[in-house]
Amino acid sequence: MTNIEYLQDFIGTAIKHLEEVRTNGVKKEISFTINCSDLEDFNYVDIRQSAKFKSIFDQLISASGPSLYWFEIVSETDTKKVIEALNNYKASERPKATPALKSNINYNSKVLYVGKVKGTFWGRLIQHLGFFKVNATQGLQLFYWAKDLSIELKVNVLEFDNNMADIMPIIEYAFAKRLQPLIGKHK
Question: With a threshold of 0.85, does the pTM exceed it?
Answer without folding.
Answer: yes
